[in-house]
Amino acid sequence: MKKTLSIIALSIIGFGLVSCKKENQQAAAGAEVANITDSTAGATNLAPSNSAEAHVADAAPVSNQPLTTIALSESNFDFGKVKKGDKVEHVYEVTNTGTNPLVISEVKPGCGCTAPDFTKEPILPGKKGKITLHFDSTNFDGAVNKYADVFANVEKAPIKLTFTANIQP
What we know:
There is one protein chain. With 169 residues, this protein is of the alpha+beta class. 17% of the residues lie in helices and 39% in strands. The chain has three helices and ten strands. The strands form three sheets. Strands 3-5-8-7 form a four-stranded antiparallel beta sheet, with no helix packed on it. The chain has a four-stranded mixed beta sheet with strand order 4-10-9-6. A hairpin with a 6-residue loop joins strand 9 and strand 10. The N and C termini lie far apart (50 Å). The N terminus is likely disordered.
């Protein structure tokens, strides 16, 4: 009986794992993100749009900082055509539109092919910070949709940043 349960558990775990390569093949045109506004339209908080992505928030670090609000210069970026093997990056600008300092506690990419850098110091009200996503296209072909979850002291964390690229041989 224990052997059967172990095999079932391993099977379930195995089906839950998705590699970057398989994720790329299943990527849909355009990432769904709820509650997005540009900085020109006002401040907002972003939240994942489906329950599978919401599980990432379960493992999120909980901020003990007072809440604030944030505006993004953009939440999605299109690299366009990228030569296979190229390493590209994009900077997302964030503005603290609230009255408390904005603290970005963590940026979790959805895949090992994406590496984040971000402003580590508290961002004072009215000031700007940066989140940079570095993407390595080595293991991809064709259309790619990727994301990173940004955990900060905002009401609806994580904030989802997305990017697309068309990997060419």
